[in-house]
Structure formats: C-alpha cells, structure tokens
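Workshop exercise sheet. Pairs work together: one partner reads the sequence aloud, the other fills in the structure field after running the prediction. Swap roles for the next sheet.
Pair: D.N. / O.F.
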Amino acid sequence: MFNFTALPPLSLYIHVPWCVRKCPYCDFNSHTSPQQIPENVYVDALIRDLEQEVPLVWGRSVQTIFIGGGTPSLLSAEAYDRLFSAIRALLPLHPNAEITLEANPGTVEAERFRDYYAVGINRLSIGIQSFDNDALNKLGRIHDSAQAIRAVEAAKNAGYDNFNLDLMFGLPGQDEAKARHDVDTAISLAPSHISYYQLTIEPNTLFHAHPPTLPEDDPIYDWQLANQARLAEAGYLQYETSAYAKAGRQCRHNINYWQFGDYLGIGAGAHGKISSASPQQIARSVKQKQPQAFIDMAGTDACLLESTLVDKNEVGFEFMLNAMRLLDGVPTHLFQQHTGVPISTIKHPLKNAEELGLLEHTITQLRPTKKGQLYLNSLIELFLTA
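Structure field:
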C-alpha cells in the first residue's frame, strides 16, 4: 500500500491539438488545423475538462502551467486570457507560477507575443529545430531560418527574458559544420534555455514509413560532445539529458515531471498523473485524442480514453526512469515523498547500480554517475526487477 505523508508538487498541462501541417517526424497528438480553429468552443471544452478534474486535487496549488501541442500559438491571447481566468477561479495558482507556451516561428508575429505576455504567459518555447533552410525543408517545417530569428527577436521585444529554443541534431543532410552553425546561431540569440536533442525515428510517423537518410551514429556523437562543450562555454549548463539552461533558468515544469511530481492534463490527448492520500494511490489518465471527440465529451467520464492505477511494485522503476534523466539526480528523500513507498523497495537494484558504477547513492542524493549518464538505458533497466 502507498503511504503519502506529503503529496508531490502539482503542475497543469494543457494540450492544443492543431498544427498548420503535421511534421513527418512528429509522434505527438497533433492534427492538421481546420481553416477556422474553433478556439472558443475548444476553450469551453478545456474549462469543462478542468472542472471535472478539480475534485482530484482539492486545496493543492498549481506551481507551473505548460501549454503544448500541436501548435498552441495558433490560439489567440484572448482565448488564453479567458482560460486563465477560469483556471484561477477553479484552482489556487502560485503567484510566481511558470507559464510556458510552445510557439512555432511559422505561426507567430510580434504583436501576438506581446499579447501573450500581457495575459500572463511568462515563458516561451520556440520550435526552431534548425537554422539551415535545407534541413527545415526536409523536416517539413513551415518556417525558414530568417523567420526563426525574427521570432526570437519578437519574443525579446515583447518583454520575454525567459524562453527556450528547441534544436535537433543528426538531421537529414547535416554535417559537423551545419550542426555547429545551428548551435552557434542559437547561442548568439541569447535564449535562457536550449533543448538540444537527436532526431529519432518514431513509430506512427511519416519518417517511420519512409525513412530519410541520416548521418552515421559515430560522427553524430562527436558533434554532440563538441556542441555540448560550446553550450557549456556559453553558460548553458546541462541539467537533463537534452536540456541546457542559464543559471536559475531551468524549466520548472519539466523538472516536476522528472522528479515524479503530479500534473493535471487537460485537452485532446492530454496525459495526467495524480497522487492522492485518500485513497492512497497514483492514477494516470489520457483524454480523448481526436479534437472533436474531446470537445463533445469534455466534462464527462467518457472523455477519459484511459485511466490506470500505478502498481506499487512498479512505482520505483517509474520514479527512477524520470529522475535519472537529471544530471544531478534528486534528493534521496523525494523517493518516498513522491512515490509513497520506502526506498528500501529498490535496495537491490540500487546496490547493483552502485557496484556497476552507474549510480551514486548517499543519504542526501540519488544521482547517475558519468558512466550512468552514458549508459542511461542500462541503468534504468536495473530497476525493472525491483
């Protein structure tokens, strides 16, 4: 049985399911937008969905909000203003809550950024992916390099000093010089945060059905090491497998995920994870994925596409699966606090991981070693047997 003496921090995830065009590498729940997005109808559905969820988290304060997609910047600032008013009426929102919006350079302009900032969105995550026009074309992106740079300048002019740039490497046609140019260009734009990760071919994507020709793994790894060094020299400290930030600018929302915190998920295809003291359990949920089905069913039990309880015997693995992505790991006490089970439940895999040199375990901290970071999958697999 779980035994929660204190519940984890709570975040809110909001999913906007539409994109101008589906990218061939994307496996997220995204759908080509209709000519006219029904944003008022969708916001109404989001509010109904949240009303349905609120009894699960009575009295708990929301620390962060993340609006993902899809392309959330397809919705107007007025739509978010109305949604935020409803959120504040239904839930305590921390006064210094981090509120992030994902934005696509091909769908935004300076005036919209200013409006987003005015309604309380205080962090942007801009999907650049590359500053090379040939790579952007092969990735199916609807923006070019010049638009990407203009989007960043628009964010700064709107007042944003906290924003992330998404970059990928190992792209079709990419070489070392192009990979370096992407990182150097991103650094020159002075974001507070950079997400830098390798393109992977996921099932149920166009790239999976029609794979592009990608660079070989060995040179990709060399580029990664060299560009990680450039990021570090520029003051972007790696704190997670693919996340780099200026001091104090780590993404608080994602850290809550990686520390096995709780999150409400509203919107088409949104995932949620909620711990409760009565009954003592951890519940996961997934909402209806098709936008119209979500709109029709929001606020009813039928909106739940999936609802499962985390097994006590698997919670240790789930915690470590997330926590070991963080280069500094997590405070040891968070294991029991966020899982509701004592750390002794994973004592054997902890010992094995230490003996293999993959993990450091002290009374105050659980962290992967340098070797553990390099062989993260091997480290995590040890906890499958817990």
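Discussion prompt: Residues 10-255 form a domain with the TIM Barrel fold (CATH 3.20.20.70). What would you look at next?
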